[in-house]
Amino acid sequence: MINRRDVVAQGGAMAGLAMLNSAFAQPGEQVVPWTDQPPSVPPGPIQMPQAMKPGFYWTVATGPLEPDKIIRNLQRWEDMNSWITPNEHFFQIVHYGIPVIDPGTYSLVVTGLVEQPLKLSLDQLKALPRKQVTSTIECSGNRGLPFAISAVGNAEWAGASLAQILQQAKPKKNGTEIVFIGHDAGDEVIRDVTIRSNFGRSMTLDDVMSPNNILCYEMNNAALPAANGFPVRLIVPGWYGVANVKWLKRIEVRDTRYMGRFMARDYVTVREEKINGESFWSESSVGRMLLTSAPARVVKQGDRYRVMGMAWGGPVSRVEVQVDGGTWQTASLDSQKGDFAWRFWSVDWPKPTAGEHSIVSRAFDTNGNVQPPANDPLIAGKKTYWESNGQTARHVRI
Ligand SMILES: Nc1nc2c(c(=O)[nH]1)N[C@H]1C(S)=C(S)[C@@H](COP(=O)(O)O)O[C@H]1N2
Ligand SMILES: [Mo]
To answer: Which of 73, 84, 87, 93 has most ligand 1 atoms within 8 Å of CB, for mutation?
Structure first.
């Protein structure tokens, strides 16, 4: 079925009309900056609430964590005004530094419980059918730490089909767990033993065989930037950033769970659940992205105001916006979409009074999920900062 809004948005002469409601800032509109700007990413160890300090839930990093080197290139929300995030403005999460890889000698190895081990050069990967997917990547730590509130971006990724390569390698019957190993490595202390550990994540064979997954060598029609995984990274649309392993070195098929730091020690959400009135502390590995949204900016033209933002982490069906705790208003969604891409939205804000205002958004998806409020047990019972997809307020002064 053809949706009328889409036709209007794409139809030449009518395009101007649709633009009026577009979530993108229009010429002549002025951005009203948020008053609650995040602090800059601090140097040295991450400052966290007591309950989140390393050692309380995990002991992993040797030496201090240096978030100035781990979390990079964050943009102000006010500046995120394009559906595709340009490569030079895409956030970067770099746990062990950026490995320098020669594309001429690069190879990707597929090994472990397979009938046919593979070794593919970059040229061989590029010779396979090219697949493209537009997918929004969010770091699961986004909005869990006060200084990282915009670690999210949307890009068009291109590469070879992961399922096709796995099929070529022919996993053995007992090969059920697929581990993706990066070139980057660091020292990790586990029970007094120091090991040199590569960045790694794993998925089940079922999840790996999703036709959307690619071994990606292009980001927005250019080679991957060094910090975003050059020359080859995994793109698994619909999963949090951490699952999208960069600087891919090896794919290993195994018959046991992979319990590396980024599966089983960090990126583990600890949550208090009540089961028959009894506390149960669940510990779960960060995986699929959760439904969420954020107000990106307030704009004005004369005395006409609008609030704009994005929603992602599911097939978004609706976004609502609340000002100063009032009634929820339905926002209009932009027509640009892909199964794994964020939706831009906008809502008119007629005649705000002078002074400070709070703005909250909430997303709904086609499966009947709602982005949880801050007091939802899913959010309130969570003791670690990952998967902070709850509704969050931003503030402006008019
Ligand atoms: N090899 C490797 N892959 C990695 C990481 C890393 O440090 N090393 N960081 C992960 C995390 S936590 C996130 S959020 C995403 C971020 O992707 P980006 O840096 O391209 O934005 O990469 C993931 N892939
Ligand atoms: Mo992340």
So the answer is: 93
What are the residue ranges in the chain where pLDDT is below 70? 1-21, 42-69
- Ligand 1 atom with the shortest distance to the CA of 95: 7
pLDDT in tens, 310-330: 999 999 999 999 999 999 999
The predicted structure's pLDDT at residue 5: 41
**pLDDT in the model for residue 357:** 98
Burial class, 3, CB count within 10 angstroms (exposed 0-12 / middle 13-18 / buried 19+): exposed
CA–CA distance, 139 with 71 (Å, rounded to integer): 10
CA dihedral sign of residues 71, 67, 40, 100: negative
pTM: 0.90
- CA–CA gap between residue 349 and residue 300 (Å, rounded): 9
Is-contact 214 157, C-beta < 8 A? Answer: yes
Sign of CA dihedral 122, 124, 130, 131: negative
